[in-house]
Amino acid sequence: MLAERGPAALSARRLVREVGASTMAVYTHFGSMPALVREVIREGFARFMERLKKVRTDDEDPVAELFALCRVYREFAVAEPHVYAVLFGGSGLAGFELDDSDRDMGVYVLRVPRDAIVRAMALGRFREADSWLVVRQLWCLLHGLSDLERTGYLRADHLGGGVGLGDFLELVLRDFAVGAGDTVEAATASLAESAGRNS
Amino acid sequence: MLAERGPAALSARRLVREVGASTMAVYTHFGSMPALVREVIREGFARFMERLKKVRTDDEDPVAELFALCRVYREFAVAEPHVYAVLFGGSGLAGFELDDSDRDMGVYVLRVPRDAIVRAMALGRFREADSWLVVRQLWCLLHGLSDLERTGYLRADHLGGGVGLGDFLELVLRDFAVGAGDTVEAATASLAESAGRNS
DNA sequence: TATTAACCATAACAGCGTTACGCTGCTCCT
DNA sequence: AGGAGCAGCGTAACGCTGTTATGGTTAATA
């Protein structure tokens, strides 16, 4: 219901009407609406991780692998914006607020891209630095892009002729890699390398 | 009320109780709660612009000016997180949803940093490129950082010893400038240059 | 002065999350 | 086999939310 009809549709009464039960069902099984939402976002994080795990590791070109991961990140946010909003956007759904343990699940997914970043550093593609800082830097970029797109702030018709949001992401990723130490040429090559091979 | 007590506190009844009126006051003056929230965010955008306008232009070092603007951006998000959440986070407050004209006000503030970026390109500090694309790239970074900080995902104790969120922003800004074409040395120098002179 | 418009207090409605109460039907122990 | 205990859930209610129809008060206008 959250994914398809949005946060407003996810109410206790609508929910129990759907399954043909009374409001009590929510409280015997979950305790409260926030607790129910918590289970929903558990499922959301699982779906997210599942998508990320599908990206093949690439020891020869970890930067291309990283780019593929970034595409999957945005694609998830675009595919399930309402879920993404609750997972990372701090959307207050039925009084639900993110918990420390919830956020730990969010931070946990960073392990995947960090791994690629570490390998990019080992290969000399990225400047030697704290990989956790770098992956968070990338996170800011990805969350910012995904969230601004979700809220309608970032739209294709703002980007000038012929530039779509997919192209914009490419641009952002290339400049990120350059900022991390890669050359413009190598980054552009890895971008092309990673283009077709998501999933 | 939004700024101090959060979105849950901004209800029609609480509001009219505060000013000693009945709920009708909301509807005669604003029409609906979403419309009232719209006026609130108008005020929010105004406050935001006011802060940005306080940053002095610097034709000799537009990159330093840009960095100063970025600090102000984050400082606003930290100072008024609830307001920021409604302005840019797509927080659904009392059924309020961002309008196209609302978003135009948000996009309008981009003019200020874009101006600095154009000058940085003219001086050869930044690679020649579509300045609107570059400023949106920076926006993703700033919004991502501010929003992840607001939702509690980005915390000082995740960044390793001694690195605060202010330091993290510096790092992010330096790498952004490098990604945009600046040298590491010049970017670091502008960072130091812009350090003390906000407001 | 008479008329009209704006303004707002009252009371109500639907929907929200939540909870006290009571019934039903299952399980387990003797 | 039979009775005790209890988990699960339907009913109805409470207080909260945004919203609105009604009607009375006030102020400005003709």
TrEMBL record, chains A, B:
SUPFAM superfamilies listed in its UniProt record: Homeodomain-like (SSF46689), Tetracyclin repressor-like, C-terminal domain (SSF48498)
Q: Among its keywords, does the record have Lyase? A: no
Which UniProt keywords are present, listed alphabetically?
DNA-binding, Transcription, Transcription regulation
Q: Where is the HTH tetR-type domain?
A: 1-48
PROSITE patterns (alphabetical): HTH_TETR_2
Q: Per the record's keyword annotation, is DNA-binding included, yes or no?
A: yes
Which InterPro entries does its entry note? Answer: Homeodomain-like_sf, HTH_TetR, MT1864/Rv1816-like_C, Tet_transcr_reg_TetR-rel_C_sf
Q: Which residues bind DNA?
A: 11-30
Q: What is this protein called?
A: TetR/AcrR family transcriptional regulator
